[in-house]
């Protein structure tokens, strides 16, 4: 059991923030670490080689731990779009082959594939949402001999419909396709193990379920792609970059493993300590424990929203940390601002009212949502 932790965040009591899938709040300790990082930049004479290397390496290791990888498999990147661009630049795909994705998948995991497919004369195959919620079966059926790449999330960003990634990996192995994952909407809250799924590339930004800052993220790279081509050629990604005096002894070799894919200026003095503190907090709570706690919270909420005519994807087809509420009669266009006016913060994604709680949420937040729905006119 994780003890109540609302007080570890700066969320006023009259705010029901149910929107982690949009943007998490920072834990207070992470904000303090960031303030110290900003202060350090104001006194650069205090910067040490730790500021460039040690903090980054500790943070890389924490992310590796979360995904059951090793630090050598992890690159530091700014956004999902960057990670998928690295994957698209390095994975082979040829004329007549296809790239399998979900319908209405998040654009940062669509545009790089559309571009790459156009460049080589391949096709992007969008697997439609199935009426029976079993998107895994639909994806498995669409992976064919001509499939070069399958690029997926663990849960769909609109309503949390889950994909069984182990089953997908098994199928991609059968046809010799690569597997790329965007875990923006699951890593940190839903258990994931690279040793079981064995993706070729996997990306996650820190600003949602990793409770970290905007503009930071990670890319897992399977060792078979460690020798690939980075998007940029940063000095710090080259071997020996720790020796500032020797930087113009230009080197062909890179830092070991996936570090060659690190973004330029990855040693962000303000943001890296925020990421480090947030990841340590998640590891201290434990991802299986977080997932179980959010599942309990969401189950209780589903029961309470049923009388309003809301329906959700059944839990066996959904990430338990995620809710996308649909009403057969539809939703008012201004529902999100109406709820916000009552101190309830959620998102609308397509036909869904997306409700994503985290450990900082309390029963009082759920009560506030229910009270707000009661006083809102629904069709
Ligand atoms: C599934 C998914 N991927 C990626 C992102 C963010 O992408 P980027 O980091 O490229 O801005 C989001 C943001 O909502 C998302 O829901």
- The ordered string of helix (H) and strand (E) elements is EHHEHEHEHEHEHEEHHEHEEEH
By CATH, the architecture of the largest domain is named: 3-Layer(aba) Sandwich
* Largest sheet: number of strands, sense, barrel closure: 7 strands, mixed
Class inferred from helices and paired strands: alpha/beta
What do the pLDDT scores average to?
97
Global shape: globular
Broad CATH class of the largest domain? Alpha Beta
Total helical segments: 11
Count of domains: 2
CATH superfamily of the largest domain: Type I PLP-dependent aspartate aminotransferase-like (Major domain)
What topology, given as strand order, has the largest sheet? 2-8-7-6-5-3-4
Task: Describe this structure as you would to a colleague.
There is one protein chain. The chain is α/β, with parallel strands linked by helices. It has two domains: 6-21 and 286-374, Aspartate Aminotransferase, domain 1 (Alpha-Beta Complex); 33-284, Aspartate Aminotransferase, domain 2. Helix content is 35%, strand content 13%. It has eleven helices and twelve strands. The strands form three sheets. The chain has a seven-stranded mixed sheet, sandwiched between helices. Helix 1 (28-42) packs antiparallel against helix 8 (271-285) and helix 2 (49-67) packs parallel to helix 8 (271-285). Pyridoxal-5'-phosphate (PLP) is lined by residues 79-81, 106, 108-109, 153, 157, 182, 184-185, 205.
């Amino acid at each position: 059991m994780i003890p109540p932790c609302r007080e570890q965040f700066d969320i006023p009591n009259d705010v029901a923030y149910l929107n982690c899938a949009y943007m998490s709040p920072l834990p207070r300790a992470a904000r303090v670490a960031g303030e110290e990082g900003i202060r350090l930049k104001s006194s650069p004479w205090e910067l040490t080689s730790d500021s460039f290397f040690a903090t980054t390496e500790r943070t890389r290791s924490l992310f590796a731990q979360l995904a059951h990888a090793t630090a050598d498999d992890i690159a530091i990147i700014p956004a999902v779009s960057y990670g998928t661009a690295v994957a698209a630049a390095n994975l082979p795909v040829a004329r007549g082959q296809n790239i399998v994705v979900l319908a209405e998948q998040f654009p940062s995991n669509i545009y790089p594939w559309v571009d790459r497919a156009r460049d080589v004369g391949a096709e992007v195959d969008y697997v439609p949402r199935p009426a029976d919620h079993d998107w895994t079966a639909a994806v498995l059926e669409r992976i064919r001999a001509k499939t070069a790449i399958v690029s997926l999330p663990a849960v769909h960003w609109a309503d949390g419909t889950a994909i069984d990634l182990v089953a997908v990996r098994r199928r991609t192995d059968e046809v010799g396709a690569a597997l790329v994952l965007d875990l923006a909407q699951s890593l940190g809250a839903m258990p994931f193990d690279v040793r079981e799924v064995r993706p070729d590339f996997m990306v996650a930004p820190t600003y949602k379920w990793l409770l970290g800052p905007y503009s930071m993220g990670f890319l897992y790279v399977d060792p078979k792609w460690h020798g690939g081509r980075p998007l940029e050629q940063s000095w710090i990604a080259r071997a020996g970059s720790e020796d500032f005096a020797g930087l113009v002894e230009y080197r062909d070799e890179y830092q070991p493993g996936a570090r060659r894919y690190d973004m330029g200026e990855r040693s962000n003095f303000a943001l890296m300590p925020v990421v480090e503190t947030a990841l340590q907090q998640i590891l201290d709570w434990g991802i299986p424990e977080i997932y179980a706690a959010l599942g309990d919270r969401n189950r209780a909420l589903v029961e309470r929203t049923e009388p309003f005519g809301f329906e959700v994807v059944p839990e066996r087809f959904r990430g338990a940390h995620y809710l996308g509420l649909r009403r057969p009669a539809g939703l008012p266009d201004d529902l999100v601002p109406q709820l916000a006016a009552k101190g309830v913060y959620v998102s609308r994604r397509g036909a869904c009212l997306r409700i994503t709680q985290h450990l900082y949420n309390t029963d009082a937040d759920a009560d506030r949502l229910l009270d707000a729905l009661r006083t809102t006119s629904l069709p």
